[in-house]
Amino acid sequence: MEKGRIIEKGKHSELYQKDGVYRRLYKLQFIDSENE
Fold first, then answer.
1. 3-state class of 11 per DSSP?
2. Measuring CA to CA, which residue among 34, 6, 35 is closest to residue 20?
3. Which pTM was predicted?
4. Where are the domains of the chain?
């Protein structure tokens, strides 16, 4: 969601492949936390 609107919709694998907002948020939450 961005400004109260859905900007991407789909399964995890589909959204991750798009390299959009979902993927950036996923990387921030999970991949960066692995480096701690």
1. coil
2. 6
3. 0.65
4. 1-36
